[in-house]
Amino acid sequence: MSTADQEEIRKAALRMVERYGGKALEEVELRMHELLVADEQEALQMWGQIRDVVKAISTTRPRTLS
Fold first, then answer.
1. Which residues 6+ apart lie within 8 Å of 30 measured at CB?
2. Are 9 and 46 in contact (CB under 8 A)?
3. What is the pLDDT along the chain (66 residues), one digit of tens a residue?
């Protein structure tokens, strides 16, 4: 995978976390399920990489108090 591809994956993961917050991983997995049902293997692989980055972000990002 090229550096540009890795950067796009990272940006997509950041957008998911910014948009969905604590539910980002759940939203990514929902999208992955939709792609699996549709047999979109290439897109599914990409979203798997996005999921990995979302997991990493979620474990390293400080949590805010509500």
1. none
2. yes
3. 788 799 999 999 999 999 999 999 999 999 999 999 999 999 999 999 999 999 999 887 655 544
The token duo for 55 is 């997991």
Q: Give the dihedral sign, CA 36/39/45/50.
A: negative
Structural contact between residues 17 and 9, judged by C-beta atoms closer than 8 angstroms: no
Answer left, alpha or beta for residue 65, where phi above 0 means left and psi between -120 and 50 means alpha. beta
Q: Residue 27 CB: number of other CB atoms within 10 A?
A: 15
Would you state the structure tokens that stand for residue 56, as one six-digit string? Answer: 């990493």
